Amino acid sequence: MVFFEHHGVEEKESFQHFTLVNSNFPLHFHRAYELIIVSEGELLVTIDQKEYSLTKNDVAFIFNNQMHEFKSIDHSKSTIVIFSPELIGHFFMNYKGYIPGNNVFQLKHLPDLNALHSIYSQKSFLYDICSTLVDHTEFIPVEHSTKTKVLHKILLFVDKNYIYECSLKVVAQELQYDYAYLSKLFIQMTNMSFTEYLNYYRISQACYLLKNSQQSIYEITINCGYTNLRSFNRNFKKITNHSPKRYRELP
Hints:
The protein is an alpha+beta fold. About 40% of the residues lie in helices and about 25% in strands. β4 (about 35-45) and β5 form a beta hairpin.
């Protein structure tokens, strides 16, 4: 299952970082660049179906729209840095349409990200990372008619329209692509059908609303794109192994 996240589509330049301990994160992609910096243990990172094992001082530099996921091996502590391409505009323009042949390299010292208070110190740090990456690997052209861009459009459409009728036929009409082509591409890139993904997406939204709102189960049903409770309950139980009522009661 693949998630499109909104990192990097903000109007303002953004730079954010946070620490994760023994964490896993499913397959996803976004417009922003991302650094995964390991300070303890081992982290298995997959980028565009290529696996890397990261240990202390290793960094994964993930380009915009590269699909990636990670999972902790026994124990790990890592820092995630997510930042707008515009923060390193010169690098972004020079390497637009390319991806690293090898996304992972090692730092001599772990950075103190909390000391990067100004946009200038952030840019200095990021350009230093860019320099290390350029010295470390070659860059490979992305296909001009990249399938990732089409998948991006589909997932973004779901993100904006899951409340309404959101069949692949509607998506194909809206994006002006052949239905059969989109169906085949979606399965090829996500290992699931569009309908499966849509149900997972809607149920994930329902899970959030059940835990973080006072909406009734019927209201959540409608607000997550289902037209009747029976269909909602069936899909919810299939995906979470709980009824909506039971899920809301779980600690």
